[in-house]
Specification:
alpha/beta, Rossmann fold, 7-stranded parallel sheet, two-stranded parallel ribbon, 9 strands
């Protein structure tokens, strides 16, 4: 296993994992890998991250599994008549740091027996948790942190996605004591220069993971 792997996990779907992945890849000049892509095969998350990253060191590894339908991986795979075997999802061999973006949340099913969390148990890599502000996000964030702790997975820190919400962020950080890496404000548009700006801002903390 690449000892410098970092997993980007979210408290749910559409919370900003791909955006955060782009920033972390840029900050660390790391490689990027999304093991499972479900839907959007014409322009995948890997394509999006590649379009936002400016450095010339990062390599974008092909997905282990590409599914046609934008559904939970287990359901998308079943629709195509296949079953995901997590033993065949092997980390890319690279001398560089590797940023891994999960498909969906921690407890998303991959088949009838395995969940995303089982991949994390296998990889034993630290996790950066992405939390987006919405009604109920405190609960979803605390549950995600509890699950990671239950399975003995190290949380490298949390990144909040969305304009500052003092009471929400304080509650999460006070209850959990996990490291705060930074916040990504709501931006009018996301372009490579925006990614570079956040990468520079968060680089010091990310390099300590």
């Amino acid at each position: 296993m690449n000892v410098d792997s970092i997993v980007i996990a979210g408290i749910g779907t559409e919370v900003g994992k791909t955006l955060v992945s782009s920033i972390v890849v840029e900050a660390l000049q790391a490689d990027y890998w999304k093991p499972i892509q479900a839907g959007d095969l014409a322009f995948t998350d890997s394509d999006r991250v590649k379009s936002l990253v400016s450095n010339h060191k990062s390599f974008f590894h092909p997905e282990a599994i590409r599914l046609l339908h934008p559904m939970s991986p287990h359901a998308a795979a079943k629709k195509e008549g296949i079953e995901i075997d997590i033993e065949k999802i092997i980390l890319p061999n690279t001398p560089n740091k590797l940023v891994i973006e999960l498909a969906g949340g921690l407890m998303v099913p991959l088949n009838e027996r395995a969940l995303n969390i089982d991949l994390l148990k296998k990889w034993k890599a630290p996790v950066i948790l992405v939390s987006r502000h919405y009604l109920g996000s405190i609960n979803h964030t605390l549950l995600s942190i509890s699950v990671l702790a239950q399975f003995g997975i190290r949380i490298a820190g949390i990144i909040f996605n969305g304009n500052e919400n003092v009471s929400t962020e304080k509650a999460i950080l006070d209850y959990t004591k996990i490291p705060f890496i930074g916040r990504i404000d709501d931006e009018g548009s996301i372009a490579p220069e925006v990614i570079r700006g956040y990468a520079e801002k968060l680089k010091e903390k990310l390099n300590k993971i």
